DNA sequence: GCAAGGTC
């Protein structure tokens, strides 16, 4: 029952103003007149504000109201609701789509029709972005239905402030259909791709693998998952690398860093250590300089979400929920904003004054007002619709509904006050030491003025003291040769993911947190604390795309879409052209997926099986290795834990062992006559090195080891990169093979016959090629008896087991004398042929992809 | 039961 009735007594021209949300309508009314009247409408949130105004010298009655985002939404007609009945290709390519006003927006439609039928003019105050322009057309269409003669204008504003609103009214323009069409194109493409690919994947995989969720596909959610999977793969394929460095410590326990940082060659570091070793150093420089720690940029949504996640440990999704609540209660400004610079029209002093009575930071605010204020830095993002997030009303802790709400308000208020403060100032002192040819340095910091750091508790700037030395001083030092190793990438945090999505244009400020939520709802990823990790399903899905050659999880899909939308927005292309082109390209991909559906099931299943021990809830990546099958035959370094243990032992051994002890009578370089340095390596081998590096010579008095004995897991050198081959383990084949230790940079491998179950390196060498020998364990049902129990696996050496470097897709089989294996064709034993694709997820040959998938062509 | 974009 429509009990709404608005008054129409006045004879003045009536101008209907429509904003995108209730708050903007309210702000416009406030800006234009404090004496406005407020009327209820059929939609409880969307009030109607009325006021008298002089518009271009004409007295008019302004009616200001709002919608709540889009009025219309795209959907497939009822007949397509059955997933089983329709080929996803039809859903993608041919099914008609309806664009109607959603049921929950019908009250707004009635409002607009009612007001438009009474008003003479319509001014569209939708946000000044593409979506806003499209909503403007939706509003205009509804209003024109009720009043075909209504005169329409578009207001362009960068903030809802007095100056901007007045300026917008003085320079009214017309809505831009190209901008709006680019949105319609995006909507249609997203729906068609999302619905068709989701139906295909779900029907293919859900029942087969007893999955509780649908297996959705979306051009934002899947690239989001792609980032999470990529990081996990980087962690799991990480191979630790050892490095060495020289450390210098003075008698005040101050440690100076080597200016060469560290080197990956133990020999060179040992040599340099020998050459510079002494017990005193000269202070060659003491440099002091003033430094600043910069205050933050004004707060946009993305930054707010990152800060909430990182500093408050509140998820982006929850933080937005809390911010929206604070906004609705009038404590903060609109929280969905891309802008990180304040418009000159906003009165910052007034906002600070509102905080002057605050029990926690009132004094700080007063101090800012009186003398410490400095204008905020200007960021480079501006959505032309909303200012950066800032407090609009003071809130004290007891007014907050809970701790998290208070934390969010506090973050926003403190951030704003920090923006209006001065940078922190300090003094940095760097001491440089010279020890023979090597230099070492140490930098200390003294904070002189904390300024914004007083209020901004989220930033740290730690002080560190340095000794009070003068240039030319000679000081006593202790030099040590140290060893370290590179660390794997850190697990993906939510804040990092938000940053990656923002950088790659995945989602918008208002939707990024929703996509992160979606991948969790779909059981593609889990979040523990601030760490996001892929689940088995998420890994298996992305890996299946990867292995089968699809780039559906790559972020550039969205970038191409954005580029095409821009062409429509600029009027260079028709929306139908880009919809057609995109859908045609995606049809090719969907058809390929359909053709490969058996392979998809097999690949997806193999990954789930291989990942059955993968602990998706464990954040500790050191204790959770190996879990992910790498793209090369699901390989993992079987011996990795042993390698690490050995490294530790070696380090301990090294610390007891001073290099000086290892010196034997030096020899003379045969090229330059310099006195050579003898160095003992960690493996005990002695080496004579010329200081000018003319020659490096193994000490003949020592027991000369084959290089492969440097590390007990190393076999012989890779014929491609000269690093060592190692015993690896294929989780899917459940057998050993030899893989290059430089994987994934080098993918050289040697596979063994299926009859070989496992291999073990032994302390014997091949008499023919000097490579280390292996003892082999054969499958139980393999009966052939060999005359020897030790085998050489160096390609081309032994006649009993013939092995080969696996360099291309046709040579992925090793052969066994007397028992020839299948060659070439994929036998179904492997879930895929890894050599048909680039193995390396991160160094994908894009040109190749582009050839295969025209959708990604620019 | 499908997407992503507005907004509450």
UniProtKB/TrEMBL annotation:
Top-rank EC class of the record's enzyme: isomerase
Entry EC number(s): 5.6.2.1
Sequence ranges of Polar residues compositional bias: 810-825
Catalysed reactions, semicolon-separated: ATP-independent breakage of single-stranded DNA, followed by passage and rejoining
Keyword Isomerase tagged: yes
GO cellular component: nucleus; RecQ family helicase-topoisomerase III complex
Residue ranges of every copy of the Topo IA-type catalytic domain listed in the record: 176-590
Pfam family, one: Topoisom_bac
UniProt keyword list: DNA-binding, Isomerase, Topoisomerase
Stretches for region Disordered: 614-661, 810-858
Gene Ontology biological process terms in this record: DNA recombination; DNA repair; DNA topological change
Molecular function as annotated in GO: DNA binding; DNA topoisomerase type I (single strand cut, ATP-independent) activity
CDD domains: TOP1Ac (cd00186), TOPRIM_TopoIA_TopoIII (cd03362)
Listed Basic residues bias regions: 643-652
Residues covered by the Toprim domain: 14-158
InterPro entries: Topo_IA, Topo_IA_2, Topo_IA_cen, Topo_IA_DNA-bd_dom, TOPRIM_dom, TOPRIM_TopoIII
PROSITE patterns the record matches: TOPO_IA_2, TOPRIM
Record has Isomerase as a keyword: yes
Function: Introduces a single-strand break via transesterification at a target site in duplex DNA. Releases the supercoiling and torsional tension of DNA introduced during the DNA replication and transcription by transiently cleaving and rejoining one strand of the DNA duplex. The scissile phosphodiester is attacked by the catalytic tyrosine of the enzyme, resulting in the formation of a DNA-(5'-phosphotyrosyl)-enzyme intermediate and the expulsion of a 3'-OH DNA strand.
Family recorded in the similarity comment: Belongs to the type IA topoisomerase family.
Record's protein name: DNA topoisomerase
